[in-house]
Amino acid sequence: QVQVEESGGGLVQAGDSLRLSCTASGRTFSDYTMGWFRQAPGKERDVIAAIHWNDGPTYYADSVKGRFRLSRDNAKNTVYLQMNNLSPMDTAVYYCAAQIRDTGRYDYWGQGTQVTVSL
């Protein structure tokens, strides 16, 4: 049974930073390609960052490139999404998801964590 759990959301002001964490259990953590998605009210859920299971390149959506940084600590079964210079446009529910290696499909999802950025 694979379980994914996010933490670290909250309410911050524009320009602040926030770090989200995500753990995944169920098998060797280094086997997971991990992705972060977000869904703003009335919008679709979009991928914003992903980190490959095999130390491949990390992906960032244009909307977060240069402000967000995704890293992983396999010893702690955790990925971290460091979010800097946040703006109200970043307000959304943030979801962490896992896929096993390169299936191309995120099969395992967390419950989501709310990030709200005020002016």
SSE arrangement:
Elements: E1 3-7, E2 10-13, E3 18-25, E4 32-39, E5 46-51, E6 59-60, E7 68-73, E8 78-83, E9 92-100, E10 108-109, E11 113-118
Parallel strand pairs: 2-11
Antiparallel strand pairs: 1-3, 3-8, 4-5, 4-9, 5-6, 7-8, 9-10, 9-11
Short description:
The chain is an all-beta fold. It has strands spanning 3-7, 10-13, 18-25, 32-39, 46-51, 59-60, 68-73, 78-83, 92-100, 108-109, 113-118. The chain is built from no helices and 11 strands.
Structural class: mainly beta
Question: Which runs of at least 5 residues are low in confidence (pLDDT < 50)?
Answer: none
The average pLDDT score comes to 95
Oligomeric state of the chains present here: single chain
Strand segment tally? 11
What is the succession of H and E elements?
A: EEEEEEEEEEE
Radius of gyration in whole Å, from Cα? 13 Å
Supply the number of helical segments: 0
Question: What distance separates the N and C termini?
Answer: 41 Å
Strand content: over 45%
Tell me about the largest β-sheet.
7 strands, mixed
Principal-axes geometry comes out as: globular
Helix content: under 10%
Structure description:
By secondary structure, this protein is mainly β. It has no helices and 11 strands. The strands form 2 sheets. Strands 2, 4, 5, 6, 9, 10 and 11 form a 7-stranded mixed β-sheet that branches. It has a 4-stranded antiparallel β-sheet with strand order 1-3-8-7, with no helix packed on it. The relative contact order is 0.32.
